[in-house]
Amino acid sequence: MMRLERTRGIGVLALWACSCGVMAQPLLLSGQVTSMESQSLVVPKPGDAWRYQIQWMLPEGEMAQAGQPVVIFDKSQLDNQIEQLEANVERVTAQEQSRGVELEVQVLQARFNLKKAALDKDKAALDAAVPAEFIAAKTYADNQFRLMRSEHELAKMEQALFETESRLQASLKQLTLDRDKADIALTQARDGIDELTLFARFSGPVLYGFDHRANRKYDVGDSIQIGRTVATIPSTDRLLVKAWVNEVDVDRLELNQSVTLQLDAALQQTLPGHIAGIGRQAERRRGWGVGNWFEVEVQFDAGLEQAMVPGMSVLIRTGEGAQ
Questions:
Q1: What is the value of pTM for the model shown?
Q2: Which among 189, 297, 200, 290 is positioned nearest to 242, based on CA atoms?
Q3: For a tag site, which of 11, 72, 240, 274 has the least CB within 10 Å?
């Protein structure tokens, strides 16, 4: 029994020693300098097209200044659309004016007809007011009939004027809506011309977006679907390193763990840092096989990020040698 307990104790110590040996081994991660704040330059949707061609881009890696144009898309298609919309605005405006004049003439004619019917009715009323004992019976009956007919005609002209004025108001309202709609479409198209130029909100290097279908970065001449990110501008004020660790090795990392960093641009120099964040959910990475990966954030020690530029590749070392 004593021999069994001694053997079990030796096995536990061996496992513990083995575990310590694995934990002591340095872990190497590859990452990239990135920014806590970045601007995504997205293909806009100023018109009816669903793709726009890149006409010009600031060279990749060049520092963009705040307010500087970074990407310009081809505007010829929108220019043609604006010409059509301008012609449509002129047509709708001319139609509104001509139709308005036509309806005004109809209203004036209806008012004239009403006034004439009122005069005819007044004349018929005077004739009908003559007593029957002073005129012939047939003449008296004719006068009464003409009065009834003039009253009916007057009511008919009043209804005609009301309908004409209502039609005038409805037509003018519809024509005004059509003109406003055409003006809005033209204004949006003109504003869209400005939207086809993307400006930098803050200073930072220009990083081109990646076209996964073509397996290359976007470039001048590419036609890109609306909503796609054609480039990004990371801010140079608050930098960190983003890396990915395999699910097999994620338990070897912990928050605030010291690490050393080596920039590919200066392998002879090592910089101290620490792990600032570890992702809680693993995910697959395109082209990285079937394994799952956790995102890792590494921060430089105070002041050291001033010499960094977003997009730089970094080698991260944990364990022995990390300060």
A1: 0.55
A2: 297
A3: 11
